[in-house]
Amino acid sequence: MPRYKACRTCHALINGNRCPNCGKTDLTDNWSGIIAVISIEDSETAKQLNIKFPGCYAIHVR
After folding, report:
1. CB 4 within 8 A of CB 15
2. Which of 1, 3, 11, 44 has the most Cβ atoms closer than 10 angstroms to its Cβ?
């Protein structure tokens, strides 16, 4: 299983060196909790967390 990193800017979980959502390279292994967003239009949580794209996100990023 790949070890995902979290983007410090948008909290997206990625397996690579650049965030596909915001384009930043400031990534960390130090994160906890996962939220999976399938439909940003129907998700109150996505709206509250300002999530713009479907995908998996870290809840807490250090």
Report:
1. yes
2. 11
Q: Which amino acid is at 47?
A: K
Distance in angstroms (rounded) separating the CA atoms of residues 2 and 49 = 25
Interatomic CA distance for residues 45 and 58, integer angstroms: 13
Residue that has been written with the tokens 């909290």 in this structure: 11
**Domain layout of the chain by residue ranges:** 5-61
State the Cα–Cα distance between residues 32 and 38, nearest whole angstrom.
Answer: 20
Q: What is the pLDDT of residues 2-56, one digit of tens each?
A: 689 999 999 999 999 999 999 999 999 999 999 999 999 999 989 998 899 999 9
CATH number of 5-61: 2.20.28.90
pTM of the prediction? 0.87
